[in-house]
């Protein structure tokens, strides 16, 4: 019997414990210490982000976005149905009504061809999700947002170090939200980041992140006392979290190279499946690949269920995800009744294969052989 292959194994550079100890010895392990500063500087000075703030999760970054945009009860927000619950929940917490968009036939990203039909006088924001780190078609999204004065919040949870026509994902919209959860490319266990791409929102973002106070400006010496000036919450992570993250950012190029190599090997080995009508990821020419995840699209739910069981029988852990939010237990009754066939299709038929830094070639061959064998192509 083979040793089981897990679905995910968190990356570990080996420097994490040393940096955490440095953070502890620095005497400042609450938020915005030396490692948080380093992470902020990396994105702002080396990656072309205008302003970033580390948060305790991507979920929190999205909740900050909803506060920052002053979303109110009755406002409408357009979100793809095929995505993680946090994108919708952050706005539902502010009383917004979610208008769900379908995915494209090409890949699970938001279908921009019908986007404008979803806009009403109450629409305030569009939340594209760059699924698998592959960019949404941002030109149309930004044009629709511009025509109707809507904010764009990019859910870039999958999309670290990925680009749309050369621009980093997360910097194209009004705001961008990243995740450093242990299932993502670079991690801190739990963790996230908000990218603030409009200067006018920067000062208020700091206040919302610091419990509605001017503490950030106070620490910089810009005000002589700090006080309560707005609503907010506690969104900044301990510097211990930032220290862990910094130990990963230092290895970002290596991590991305390795993940992309694994992705490419899957893509090459599984080409024969295309002739059977099994779908593989599609990368439009405006998008880059950051090797975040690799998926297959089966032809039916029954086929996917059988494939996952077949792989499990060989000690390989493959998973599916995203129950469509428009038909979820919590929101189905509030959805307007439109069917979203592509969201439902991906929810039923998409399967993710193991993809992590330490996945060695012989194990990956075991996975591709098992998949091809299932489809009688081996
Ligand atoms: C992981 C993920 C989130 C949530 O990230 P957390 O950091 O766990 O809060 C949000 N959206 C998408 C698309 C994700 O994959």
Notes on the protein architecture:
InterPro entries: DegT/StrS_aminotransferase, PyrdxlP-dep_Trfase, PyrdxlP-dep_Trfase_major, PyrdxlP-dep_Trfase_small, WecE-like. With 378 residues, the protein is an alpha/beta fold. The protein folds into two domains: 16-249, Aspartate Aminotransferase, domain 2 (3-Layer(aba) Sandwich); 252-377, Aspartate Aminotransferase, domain 1, CATH 3.90.1150. 34% of the residues lie in helices and 12% in strands. It is built from twelve helices and eleven strands. The strands form three sheets. It has a seven-stranded mixed beta sheet with strand order 1-9-8-5-4-2-3, with helices on both faces. Helix 1 (16-25) runs antiparallel to helix 8 (239-249) and helix 3 runs parallel beside helix 4. The mean pLDDT is 97. Bound molecules: pyridoxal-5'-phosphate. Pyridoxal-5'-phosphate (PLP) binds at residues 57-59, 83-84, 86-87, 129, 155, 157-158, 179, 181, 192.
Bound molecules: pyridoxal-5'-phosphate
What is the averaged pLDDT score?
A: 97
Runs in which pLDDT lies below 50 for 5 or more consecutive residues are none
Number of helices: 12
Number of strands: 11
The geometry reads as: globular
Q: Kindly report how far apart the N and C termini lie.
A: 20 Å
What would you say the CATH architecture of the largest domain is?
A: 3-Layer(aba) Sandwich
Report the portion of residues in β strands.
5-15%
The main sheet comes to: 7 strands, mixed
Task: Please list the strands of the largest sheet in the order they lie side by side.
Answer: 1-9-8-5-4-2-3
Protein structure class: alpha/beta
Fourth-level CATH superfamily of the largest domain: Type I PLP-dependent aspartate aminotransferase-like (Major domain)
Helix content: 25-40%
Counted up, domains total 2
Keywords: Pyridoxal phosphate
Family: Belongs to the DegT/DnrJ/EryC1 family.
Organism: Hymenobacter frigidus
Protein name: dTDP-4-amino-4,6-dideoxy-D-glucose transaminase
């Amino acid at each position: 019997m083979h040793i089981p292959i897990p679905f995910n194994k968190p990356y570990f550079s080996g420097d994490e414990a040393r940096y955490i100890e440095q953070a502890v010895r620095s005497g400042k392990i609450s938020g915005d210490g030396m490692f948080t500063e380093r992470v902020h500087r990396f994105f702002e000075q080396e990656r072309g982000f205008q302003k970033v703030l580390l948060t305790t999760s991507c979920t929190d970054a999205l909740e900050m976005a909803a506060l920052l945009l002053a979303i109110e009860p009755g406002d409408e927000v357009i979100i793809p149905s095929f995505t993680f619950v946090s994108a919708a929940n952050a706005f539902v917490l502010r009383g917004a009504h979610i208008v769900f968009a379908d995915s494209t036939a090409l890949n699970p990203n938001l279908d921009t061809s019908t986007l404008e039909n979803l806009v009403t006088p109450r629409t305030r924001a569009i939340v594209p999700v760059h699924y698998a780190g592959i960019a949404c078609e941002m030109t149309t999204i930004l044009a629709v947002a511009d025509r109707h004065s809507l904010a764009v919040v990019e859910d870039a949870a999958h999309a670290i170090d990925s680009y749309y026509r050369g621009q980093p994902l997360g910097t194209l919209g009004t705001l961008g939200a990243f995740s450093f959860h242990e299932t993502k490319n670079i991690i801190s266990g739990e963790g996230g980041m908000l990218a603030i791409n409009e200067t006018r929102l920067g000062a208020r973002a700091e206040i919302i992140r610091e419990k509605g106070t001017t503490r950030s400006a106070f620490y910089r010496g810009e005000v002589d006392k700090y006080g309560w000036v707005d609503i907010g919450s506690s969104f900044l992570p301990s510097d211990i979290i930032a220290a862990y993250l910094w130990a990963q950012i230092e290895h970002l190029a290596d991590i991305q190279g390795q993940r992309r190599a694994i992705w490419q090997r899957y893509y090459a080995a599984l080409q024969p499946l295309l002739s059977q009508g099994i779908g593989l990821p599609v990368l439009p020419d405006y998008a880059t690949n950051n090797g975040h995840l690799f998926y297959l699209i089966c032809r039916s739910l029954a086929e996917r269920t059988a494939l996952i069981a077949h792989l499990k029988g060989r000690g390989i852990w493959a998973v599916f995800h995203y129950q469509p939010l428009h038909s979820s237990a919590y929101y189905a009754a509030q959805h307007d009744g439109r069917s979203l066939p592509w969201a439902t299709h991906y929810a039923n038929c998409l399967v993710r294969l193991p993809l992590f830094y330490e996945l060695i070639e012989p194990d990956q061959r075991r996975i591709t052989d098992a998949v091809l064998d299932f489809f009688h192509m081996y």
